[in-house]
């Protein structure tokens, strides 16, 4: 294993453990709680794609006229991830992005999608995160999570974007949550089958094949530059801290229902 990758994994493990074993997952016990989780987490599903597309813009040629850009191996890695994330197949075999699949799951679970759709519509028109958060009444913990993602995007440093994409993102939904969803799916048939399918795809694709590709991408971009690896570690830690705060926000909202 790359020694820099090993060092990152060792240094972030305690924080990852806090996130994966968060009290939130002990409090979720009904469909309403799942809905609260989804209303917060959908922002992370959305901005995941923004980081990914920023990487694609930086690492591949997306302008016309086209010319070869960057490392062919890195181009392959990012393009393969984009195909899987932006145009996967849903439970009915229809091509959709994972974000669109998640929205479908929210609708099936009778979870309000107004906030995230208002956020997206406002952002398209205003190009202002601040205005979009305010108009959509986005939960504060989701706001700060997205703000950090765009802070990283705006560094224009592809290795930092790749680092938080690889070590700070969607593989942090624990098996405990998957087990809860599976159990609730059995108790309430046809209510969260789409969420269960999303998680199945997430584990199958994002958590396995894509994670290996993403690690290769970080290795390509950081190379043997210790300064890049050190800066990447700092951003990964900040990304994980934001994830913990997101879970804190979900937990606070669930406890208010009890």
Question: In a nutshell, what does this entry contain?
Answer:
This protein is an all-alpha fold and 258 residues long. Helix content is 76%, strand content 2%. A hairpin with a 5-residue loop joins strand 1 (88-89) and strand 2.
Which overall shape is indicated by the principal axes computed on the Cα atoms?
A: globular
Q: What are the low-pLDDT stretches, counting only 5+ consecutive residues below 50?
A: none
DSSP helical segment count: 12
Strand order of the largest sheet: 1-2
- How many strands appear in the DSSP assignment? 2
Give the helices and strands as they follow along the chain: HHHHEEHHHHHHHH
Let me know the average pLDDT: 92
- Mind summarizing the main beta sheet? 2 strands, antiparallel
* Rg (C-alpha, Å): 18 Å
Estimate the strand proportion.
under 5%
Structural class designation: mainly alpha
Euclidean distance between termini CA atoms: 46 Å
Percentage of helical residues?
A: over 70%
């Amino acid at each position: 294993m790359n020694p820099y990758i090993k060092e990152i994994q060792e240094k972030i493990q305690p924080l990852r453990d806090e996130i994966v074993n968060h009290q939130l997952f002990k409090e979720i016990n009904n469909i309403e709680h799942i809905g609260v989780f989804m209303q917060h987490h959908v922002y992370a599903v959305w901005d995941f794609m923004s980081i990914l597309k920023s990487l694609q813009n930086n690492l591949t040629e997306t302008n016309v006229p086209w010319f070869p850009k960057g490392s062919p191996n890195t181009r392959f890695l990012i393009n393969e991830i984009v195909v899987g994330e932006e145009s996967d197949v849903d439970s009915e075999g229809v091509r959709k992005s994972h974000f669109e699949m998640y929205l479908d799951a929210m609708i099936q679970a009778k979870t309000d999608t107004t906030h995230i759709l208002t956020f997206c519509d406002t952002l398209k028109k205003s190009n202002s995160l601040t205005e979009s958060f305010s108009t959509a009444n986005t939960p504060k913990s989701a706001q700060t999570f997205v703000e950090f993602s765009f802070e990283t995007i705006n560094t224009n440093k592809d290795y930092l974007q790749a680092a938080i994409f690889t070590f700070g993102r969607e593989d942090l939904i624990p098996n405990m949550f998957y087990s809860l969803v599976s159990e609730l799916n059995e108790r309430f048939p046809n209510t969260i089958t789409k969420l269960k399918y999303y998680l199945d795809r997430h584990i199958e694709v994002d958590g396995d094949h894509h994670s290996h590709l993403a690690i290769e991408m970080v290795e390509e971009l950081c190379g043997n530059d210790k300064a890049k690896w050190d800066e990447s570690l700092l951003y990964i830690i900040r990304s994980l801290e934001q994830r913990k705060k997101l879970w804190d926000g979900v937990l606070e909202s669930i406890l208010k229902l009890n």
